[in-house]
Amino acid sequence: MMRFHAPAVHLxxxxxxxxxxxxxxxxxxxxxxxxxxxxxxxxxxxIDDAYLEAAGPQLRVVANYAxxxxxxxxxxxxxxxxxxxxxxxxxxRATAEITLTLMLSLLRRVTEGDxxxxxxxxxxxxxxxxxxxxxxxxxxxIVGAGRIGRETARLAEAFxxxxxxxxxxxxLDALLPDADVVSLHxxxxxxxxxxxDARRLRLMKRTAILVNTARGPVVDEAALAExxxxxxxxxxxxxxxxxxxxxxxxxxxxxxxxxxxHLGSATRDTRVAMGMLCVDALRAVLLEGRxxxxxxA
Length: 297
What we know:
34% of the residues lie in helices and 14% in strands. The chain has helices at 17-26, 49-55, 74-80, 92-107, 110-118, 147-158, 172-175, 198-203, 221-230, 268-287; strands at 8-11, 28-30, 38-41, 61-64, 83-85, 139-143, 162-166, 181-184, 209-212, 235-238, 257-259. Strand 9 (209-212), helix 9 (221-230) and strand 10 form a beta-alpha-beta unit. Helix 1 runs parallel beside helix 10 (268-287) and helix 4 crosses helix 6 (147-158).
């Protein structure tokens, strides 16, 4: 009787147990991308021409454990006939939720208050103590009108915010001066790298806050730090960083900054669902000979 040949799949990092189990049912997990027919790649892995060359000509599919694929050279993959898949939809709500969490934490000074209490600073209830701002009535500029941007808009609107959606062709320079909150949801491309730079920070209100749960390099982080120290804008909340996991040191001592360690999709059910999309993409290409629905190249 003929034995089934399980295609070789390389994991660039450990995955949730449920995803690992699903992979092992159909594939042979190998330690190196060299010789693998499929790869499950974290967004921290750069899949460029050199990586694809080292992996070998047998490679047929890379399942990126993320929505964004800025870590992958799509043109190089196309030239080699390698299918690239991502994980859309399943992390939309989780990322929108973390965006609202950061937004509210900054406006209501929650993390600042947490640090205050933990260092045992003396305090007592006062009507003027650590006053923040409500989201209700604020103009929230959503930069990037994709799934996550639209879901963030829906949640913010439930708090009474006025929403302005800025798609790809929007005149950002004209919209920034009126925004109380600027929330970034664009993919990282050559056009969006440093989309928010020193010049655009100066267009914002001095009381405005910037929230980034997209990709770190969408913001010029050094320029942001300078703007915050100079009082050019009111505050910032970041879940992603330009040189992740490193954070610009000038941001660390600021009370008007909320910093999270890339928690956008960090719920167990979301991460498992993302992994299962990767499994489905591998099965489609390696076992069924078809292009997966979540292919981007």
